[in-house]
Design brief:
alpha+beta, Nucleotidyltransferase, domain 5, six-stranded mixed sheet, two-stranded antiparallel sheet, globular
Amino acid sequence: MTEAWFVGVDWGSKEHHVCLLDASGKVVGQRAFNHNGEGLSAMADWLLGCTGKPPSEVGVAIEVPHGPVVESLMERGFNVHSINPKQLDRFRDRFSVAGAKDDRRDARVLAAALRTDPECLRRLQAPDEVTLQLRAWTRARKQLVEERKRLSNQVRDLLWRYYPQLLEAVKNDVSANWAMALWRLVPTPAKALRVREATIAKLLKKHRIRRLDAAQLLALLRQQPIDVGHGVVDATTSHIDTLMPVLKVVNRQIADIDQHLERMTRHLAEPVVAQQTDGSTTVEHTDAGILRSIPGVGTVVLATLLAEAHEPLRRRDPQALRCLAGAAPVTRRSGNKLIVVRRLAANDRLTDAAHHWARIAVQRDAISKAKCKRMRARGHRYGRALRQVSDRLIHVACAMLRDRQLFDPHRASARSRLLPEAS
């Protein structure tokens, strides 16, 4: 590490406390800056004025790895490092074993940790513009998916109250566009008794639903209804009527984001054609193209990997990636006691992406399917088996990125026969 000055920033919603240490650990200055453009600019100017050195020789430690404070400091050229809040809590015991917490002391603890234990902090790299866009789109999509789930649960509870046969007909997927159109057509059991089979057939054809025909669907909808009061039906349908338009808008927004992500990832996955000095051309695969060739990696999973794991992917670091994705187990050993538990300290978005990656890979990749079956045969649960599959796929992905090769199922099959059985 080349830093000669060490800064700790305890960030807050209204103001940020900053502590500056020299190479010997002496406190040079402490100040608080407001959270606005003027305050963040004054923070950088104050650090440069106190140190008299270029930003490249000033190291900054902060808890969060993102946000306006991090971005403004990195934009000015400072070396910004992040630390896990749990680690910071342990470093705090150096200064106060009583458990007292103070913003000024936390800023000093951050600076001291960076000076004495730089290996415990993670050097942050400014992501490129494409990564920032992918991160914004994937996070917006996840929020919309959670909103759709929340609205769907409300609609499902209301239908369960008076119309459970419709839930059975749509397999509880009330957020599907065809399910909402079906409810609009037959919002009550009484309407289901009067609707014509040809009308139901037209709806199914419009939405391309082939797993049910009109006669089957009508038979489900015309099952004996729950005997509830007329006022209950009117009140419940009125409530659902207010939720359906919002659910429809959320579905459309998710579809728009999916199309945008598909265009971005398809462009990123295109190989690069390079012209050699002898006149020949070479084709080099991009990281996105290599990852996309792996079974189970679709548009959303690929976009999430590129957005949330750009640093470990850039370093080809499978250990960091498996920890961020929650695939690496946590071992707790004390004396004769040994417990292996699931990792909870992980990136939630990467954890979801790794889960769906492994789930689809089990369906499309023979090796992943066989590995999942072996784990299940040993008595492990389905989630545990999928984490084992995703752990293997992460190592495969990093190896492919190092070798600059696309996924080859025949090569993977031949290699798996030579490897010993994993526990």
